[in-house]
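Regression report. Comparing outputs from two consecutive submissions.

Submission 1:
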Amino acid sequence: MHRAQLKTKEDELHKLKRELDDMLQRYHREQKVLLGIIHKSGMKTLSHHLESQLSPQHTSWLKKQRATLGQPVVSRRPFRSHKTRF
């Protein structure tokens, strides 16, 4: 009777050790995937940051407004010289 109980406990112990090994393998696999995602995201952020530093910066207010509007700023009334009479 004791031998049967001992055998049962040993089998249970081996089963639990296999489950623990499987859990550890899954944990390490998930950790690698998550670290890869974090690394990729960081590299993307760094790339965008570097690109923004290398691109020409709008310095004047008018240049910024033109870039924002996407078209040249045009006055609503055509320019008329004070010499021209209508």
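Submission 2:
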Amino acid sequence: MASTLPYLFYNGGSDDLFIEWEQKGIEMLRKSSDLDPNDLMAKTLYLGTSAHSSEYAEAKKCLSSQLSSLFPNETAVEIYFKDI
């Protein structure tokens, strides 16, 4: 969330602070992906923070087929991931 919506983590201010929070979010996603390479959600979110690659497209495709089991009942999270 910090990488996607960094402005939620500080009270305005400089562009440097925005970039700092965005980078913290990206680093958290990278660590999460490294800690559990089989976590498709973490991998997809991390890959989505950089230039979109074929690896990102494949991860999104695999994740989309698992969303209904990960987030049943049309939750806001499931709807969000279906949109991306």
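Expected: both submissions complete independently.
Actual: both completed, but the second showed a warning that disappeared on reload.
Relevant detail on submission 2: The first helix runs from residue 15 to 35.
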